[in-house]
Amino acid sequence: MTALVQLIVMLGMFVVIPLGVSLIEEPGLAGVHRVWPVAAVVGSVALWLPRGPVAVGCAAGYAAATLALAVQAPRRLARNRSLAPSEVAVLTALATPAVAGLALVAERGGHRLFGFGLDILALTVPHFHFAGFAAALIAGLVCRGDGGRAGRFAALSVPVGTLLVLAGYFIDDWAELAGALVLTAGMWVVGLLTWRNLRPTGPDRTTRALLGCSALVLVATMLLALTWALGEATGLPHPSLAWMAATHGLGNALGFALCAILAQRRLRTAPTPRRPALAPILKERHA
């Protein structure tokens, strides 16, 4: 891993996932939230150690925490019995960090998991922290704020696109391109709804700025992702992985994920939110 990728992953470990998890009201998450700081520490240590048994052991500790998070997805589904688009997005957010945890263990051990090169495994770790967890979570929040077709499309297309990209790893570059198309469309809709519906009703200037930044950044970062996937599938010139990490990866981590989650937390704690639709994800209530 390059130092930049390591720092991006640490942002996901220490900030994005714990802050994002705090937006999901789920009884089983309280225990995960308590142990997460320790998991983030050992996971970050694994990033900087040379490949070997010690790094693998630290990575395994972090992977165990991501699995504990993923276990909450079927439990939540069994309790709520809901496959509403926003709920599908939340379930995806809970499950995807486990993919990052598994990739981290394999990469730190120098093991070509399923035949993938170590560079691909290294980039899978940040991808499923941000394109997996953060994107799905924010899409679910946006869907709760806009129950129309656009909101439902955003909430479903982000999980579907993420899974298609993952499937493309095993099939071919064209399948990965299809996933990138779906994911890009979904994220652009998330950005549009954020800019059009959420940003104007933000309770203060800082919240509106965070929402606006998260929406605008998606235009450029997802275009880069689409360009890279198209180049991989067709052989056309496209950015290198190092360039993608420095642009698409850094932009999504700081400009989209961090800004969007901070904005949602501010919306949650606002004393008099202007629209009930801006509340955090709450447990589905059924009669």
SSE layout:
Layout: H1 3-21, H2 29-48, H3 53-80, H4 85-95, H5 97-108, H6 118-145, H7 149-170, H8 173-198, H9 205-234, H10 241-269
Helix pairs in contact: 1-2, 1-6, 1-10, 2-3, 3-4, 3-5, 4-6, 4-7, 5-6, 6-7, 6-8, 6-10, 7-8, 8-9, 9-10
Task: Describe the protein's architecture and organization.
The protein has 287 residues and is mostly helical. The protein has one domain. It contains ten helices and no strands. Helix 4 runs antiparallel to helix 6. The C terminus is likely disordered.
Q: Which terms would index this structure?
A:
287 residues; mainly alpha; 10 helices; globular; transmembrane; YndJ-like protein; transmembrane helix; membrane
Query: How would you classify the helix and strand content by structural class?
Result: mainly alpha
What is the total tally of β strands? 0
Q: What's the overall average pLDDT, rounded?
A: 90
Classify the helix fraction into a percent range: over 70%
Number of helices: 10
What is the 3D form? globular
In angstroms, what separates the terminal alpha carbons? Answer: 50 Å
| Poorly predicted segments | 273-287
Order of helices and strands: HHHHHHHHHH
| Main beta-sheet strand count, sense and barrel state | none
The fraction of residues assigned to DSSP E strands is: under 5%
Instruction: Tell me the number of structural domains.
Output: 1
Radius of gyration: 18 Å
Keywords: Membrane, Transmembrane, Transmembrane helix
Protein name: YndJ-like protein
InterPro entries: YndJ-like
Pfam families: YndJ
